[in-house]
Structure prediction request, 273 residues.
Amino acid sequence: MRYIGCHLSASAGYMGMVKTAEGIGANTFAFFTRNPRGSKAKKEDPADAARAVAALADKGFGKLVAHGAYTMNLCTKEAEAREFAADVLADDLRRMAAVPDQYYNFHPGSHVGQGSEAGIAYIAQALRKALEPGYPVTVLLETMAGKGSEVGGKFEELKAIIDAVGSEHVGVCLDTCHVYDAGYDIVNDLDGVLAEFDAVVGLDRLKALHLNDSKNPFASHKDRHECIGQGSLGVSTFAAIVSHPLLAGKPMILETPNELPGYAREIELLRSL
Ligand code: FE
Ligand code: FE
Ligand code: ZN
Prediction:
């Protein structure tokens, strides 16, 4: 089964997103758990969540891939800001319990000069604490482009976080634009990159993908998403990804610069490949 979807606005609630997803041919979706550039979360609506749980099962949707706020930096320099980010993470995981057994993806963080080792330790500490109550959610570390002091541009860093947390509820979401910008050549050697991921992290930890073309060339460390087929990755790379046996059944989420009609066309294109 191919589970393909895109980022949707959470303003109409879970049921609103399920309906929008169906309307554009999606059978999974992503959404921000709170204002992506702030930290304010929506009021919780248990009845809406309960209806969505039933609808997702009934319609055979793949797992959802929620996205944490961009402002949530678990390894920032100031202790107070770090604690605030850790509290946001813990609250997001608590909220995810309303739709059990989905994924929650987030950007590991930027160590802002403290070094990736210190960053990894802070991220792991926050994750251990947030996972402690045992909410029914699996947290995904997003592969990053390695821009500035971003943690997660190397598979080894993701592996170090996973090992330091020591929970089955931690996986990875592979963003195609980010890994290509980070220097993993999925255009010419997708099999080699997946073999490297398997050797370093283990493919059992790879739970979801973000499908984005890239505005920039290989290893540019930039992170600018492009529409499918219009960037440096090209349609043939996405054809290989959506039909790769090692990636079968994993939710694949578009985060391309599109409105809903553009997403509908890209979903249709990906299903045709
Ligand atoms: Fe992201
Ligand atoms: Fe992404
Ligand atoms: Zn990105």
